[in-house]
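task queued by scheduler; priority normal; single chain, no ligands, no partner chains; default sampling; output format set to structure tokens
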Amino acid sequence: MTTRRVALVTGGTDGIGRATAGMLLAAGWEVVVVGRDPARCASTVEELRTTGADAAISAIVADLSLMNETRRAGVEFLAAHDSLDFLFLNANAIAQQRTLTSEGFERNLALGYLSRALLSLELERVLASTPGSQILSVVGLNKSRLNFDDLTMQRKFSGMEALGRWQWAIQVFAREFERRSPVAMNSYMPGIVKTKILRSEPNLLMRTLVRVIYAVKAATVEDSAGYVLGVMRDVEEHKQRGAYYSVKALKPPRDLEDRPGDQEALWDLTATLLAPYREG
């Protein structure tokens, strides 16, 4: 009897996450999707079960902008699984207004960075005990060094700057995680994909530009999911660690314009911020 490989997909009820979940199911994997809306989680599970009569699909409902819920998602997964082959860190949304979560974190940083760091750390043990496991974190082209003295962007805020900050942070974190952990963590930039992420852009000119780009050159979510599976295979075949992939290809490491000591400083800061959610 063949044991199914197991994937945990955040942002798994829409876009690239949902399409990737469907392709993994079709390939015989067991897939657990994470989403914040109970109805969307239920409909995703119901619809993806049509992939096959024995499709192994379930959902965890959690708002990953909250660290308490992120940790609960990890606990819930571990309660039902003793292996994890693929952690797909894909959940993302752009908060265009400065908003603090109930836990006091700037919302973009909380969802895009802190939840990914927390899930990676909470699930590191089960990943490390699963041969050939890997973490793949979806990022974009934006990058902006985190201001360690103004984590909530009180002095100056913009949605694009906030997006760049968490994307810088997760890639810098990945390099330090890679140095400390036996688990492979790589970054994936999907390019321009027909998802809803940029359709909420408040600037009319930008929204118009997005519609034009979508019509001319954007990939479908199904195309992008296929590329994700290709990246997974390449990581497995070549034992890639700390690598950066763009669309379908392995690329040179990105210049994140980080300063000496940034990796260690971010690691220590992250450990401090997440400590209350890792106790007990």
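post-processing summary
- The mean pLDDT is 91.
- Residues 125 and 183 are 9 Å apart (CA to CA).
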